[in-house]
Amino acid sequence: MSEEKYSMWFAKRRESTVMDGAREHILKIVDTCEELDNAVSAIVAGDNDKARQAIARLYADEKAADNIEMRLNEDLAIGDLPSKEREDFMHLIKRMDHIADWSKSAARNMEVIIEAEIDVPEKIWKYYRVLASRVLDAAKEVKLCIEFIGDDEEQSMVHQRNVQRIEHEIDDLYFKVKKDLMLSMTLDPRVMFVMRDIIHAMENAADNCKDSVDLMHIILTANK
Questions:
Q1: What pTM was computed for the model?
Q2: Hey, how many other C-beta atoms are within 10 angstroms of the C-beta on 143?
Q3: What is the b/e burial string over 173-182, where b = at least 16 CB atoms within 10 angstroms of the residue's CB?
Q4: DSSP the chain
Q5: Which residues constitute the domain of residue 167?
Q6: Of 193, 174, 67, whose CA–CA distance to 128 is shortest?
Q7: One digit per residue, pLDDT tens: the chain, 224 residues?
Q8: Distance between CA 60 and CA 158 in Å, rounded?
Q9: Contact in structure between 75 and 14 (CB atoms under 8 Å)
Q10: Considering only CA atoms, which of 40, 41, 27, 34 is closest in space to residue 57?
Q11: In this structure, what CATH number is given to the domain that contains residue 215?
Q12: Cα–Cα distances in Å, from 37 out to 113, 149, 179, 208?
């Protein structure tokens, strides 16, 4: 399907409902990433109660994103889009949902650290705060990509490139933090595994931001 036909498809009544749902979906995903950022910031500030509250909100946002995903799949199943394009769009929705899934995984491991009252060096948490902030930035750029689909494809591509740039930055920081973490002599090895899982989850969230915008590009241009 050509880019022009996709733009026409987005304008149809039923598929516009699907696009409204996709925008609702990415908003909840951004909310999930924002609460992850809030949780890490609270830990850096020494406020574990505030971190717990942010994590609880994150769980609620991730569940809401899951519910929207299920509804979108149902809408797509009865829509007019040809089967191949419908399948591509379902893959896109799933890929976006993985952003929230990995944010939740990071939060679960953070909760373990908080509940066990484990003292992790502030330097490490500050690195994690930067990572969480950049994941949030990437998710916001995915949201902007979706907002411009079918309206301003050039602007959508600008935000796609922003996601790719941020994902590369996160990759570089991920390996730096991982190296510092593995060289730390102050943490129990079991704690290091949990902390490693947190940054791994954040890095995967960023990867899925990039995968999402890559899929948008494929959907719009594969048959142009």
A1: 0.89
A2: 19
A3: bbeebbeebe
A4: --HHHHHHHHHSHHHHHHHHHHHHHHHHHHHHHHHHHHHHHHHHTT-HHHHHHHHHHHHHHHHHHHHHHHHHHHHHHTSSS-HHHHHHHHHHHHHHHHHHHHHHHHHHHHHHHHHTT----HHHHHHHHHHHHHHHHHHHHHHHHHHHTTT-HHHHHHHHHHHHHHHHHHHHHHHHHHHHHHH-SSS-HHHHHHHHHHHHHHHHHHHHHHHHHHHHHHHHHTT-
A5: 3-221
A6: 174
A7: 444 444 444 444 345 677 788 889 999 999 999 999 999 999 999 999 999 999 999 999 999 999 999 998 887 777 666 677 778 788 889 999 999 999 999 999 999 999 999 888 888 899 999 999 999 999 999 999 988 876 777 888 899 999 999 999 999 999 888 888 777 667 787 888 899 999 999 999 999 999 999 988 887 776 55
A8: 31
A9: yes
A10: 34
A11: 1.20.58.220
A12: 16, 27, 22, 17
| DSSP track, 130-171 | HHHHHHHHHHHHHHHHHHHTTT-HHHHHHHHHHHHHHHHHHH
What's the rounded Cα separation, in Å, for the pair 141 and 177?
A: 24
Residue pointed to by tokens 């022009």: 4
Three-class HEC string of 32-44: HHHHHHHHHHHHH
Domain count, the chain: 1
Which single residue is written with the structure tokens 């890095």?
Answer: 203
Residue position matching structure tokens 């941020």: 166
